[in-house]
Structures are given as structure tokens and as C-alpha cells.
Amino acid sequence: MGFPASTPVLAAALEGRRLDVLVNNAGIYGPRDLRLGAIDYEAFRAVLETNTLGPVRLTEALLPNLRAGARKTVVTVSSIMGSIARTQSPGALVYRTSKAAVNMAMRSIATELGGEGFTVVVVHPGWVRTDMGGPNATLDVGTSVEHLVRLVERLRPTDNGRFFDHDGSELPW
Ligand SMILES: NC(=O)c1ccc[n+]([C@@H]2O[C@H](COP(=O)([O-])OP(=O)(O)OC[C@H]3O[C@@H](n4cnc5c(N)ncnc54)[C@H](OP(=O)(O)O)[C@@H]3O)[C@@H](O)[C@H]2O)c1
Questions:
Q1: Is the shortest distance between the CB of 23 and ligand 1 below 6 Å?
Q2: Is the CB of 50 under 6 A from ligand 1?
Q3: pLDDT tens, position by position, 96-105
């Protein structure tokens, strides 16, 4: 079941429950050969649906739960590949676009909810040895998760609208 169908099911299951922290982690890279001149727009749409619309859908659907929660925190696992400032070489057009877009969506949501005491941030998990990151990635899953948990525990409303690396340093948009 994709996000459009599964989000209302999750929201209904959690109705009336407080949620302190929402972590939007699910993501896809899309086909590796989506190069300029050979873009598959159906695949592009699917990547946007998961990486960009998915986190927005979930955040919107779970707002009542988050508003009732103690920390009002939304953490979206984005990527350094969504940093426009850091994009200096070609490739990964579709994935980069989806992550830059989710960065902007979360920054917009941060400005909208900041007045209510929300902390809405995006994070880069590092290059991690998962199915997506592959075997040559520099971090194992445990280390990345440990760093991210430490970062999330330290988040405060003054961090609202920021883009963090897994080690807690700030990344350029
Ligand atoms: N690995 C890296 O080096 C790296 C670097 C930067 C950012 N990231 C980001 O980190 C996040 C986690 O990636 P990963 O490395 O763990 O990738 P992964 O190994 O490919 O795992 C992706 C996860 O997302 C889930 N998922 C994908 N589409 C979904 C959907 N439509 N609905 C629900 N769940 C869905 C998958 O569930 P199923 O297995 O059930 O499909 C899987 O659990 C992603 O947002 C990714 O973009 C990863």
C-alpha cells in the first residue's frame, strides 16, 4: 500500500493518541539510469510521491497527534543530495529534486508551525550501508541511527527549520 492509501489508515489507527516525535524515514532512489535525455517521468513521479509528498502527507495527517504531544517534533530524513548549494556535479537529478523539494516543504511547514512551539527539521543520515546506500557506504546502520537519536534528543524549538547532518552540524540549503 502506498502513502496515499496507507496514511489515512495510520491516522485512524492513531486517532486520539499523543505523538511526541514523528520521523519521516521512508525513501526511494528510483531507477539509477534516469539521466537527462532519458528521463522516465512515471518513475520521476513515483520518487516524488514517496520522498516529497509522503512526508508532507504524514505530517499533515498526524498533526492532531503531534499538537497533543510533549515535543511537537517532526524529523524528515532527507539527504545532502537535496542541498542545492552542494550540488556541483551532474547525476541523480530525480532523487536530488525530490529531496530538495521535501527540504522546502519542511522548511515551509516549520515556518507555519513554529508559533505553536513545533520543531520541524530535515536531516542527512550520512552515507549508510543499507539497500540504498550500498556496501561501500562509510557508516553502518547502527552508527547512523545512534547519531540521529542523539541529535533528535537534543532538538529544541530554537532548532525549528534547520537542516542537519547526522553529526549535528548544520548543512547549507
Ligand atoms: N543510505 C544512505 O546512504 C542514505 C543517504 C542519504 C539519505 N538517505 C535516506 O534515508 C532514508 C532511509 O533510506 P535507506 O538507506 O534505509 O533506504 P533503503 O534501505 O532502500 O530502505 C528504504 C525504506 O523505506 C521504505 N519505503 C520505501 N517506499 C515506501 C513507501 N511508499 N511506503 C512505506 N515505506 C516505504 C522501505 O520499505 P520496504 O522495504 O517495505 O519497501 C524501506 O524500509 C531515505 O529517506 C533515504 O533517502 C539514505
A1: no
A2: yes
A3: 999 999 999 9
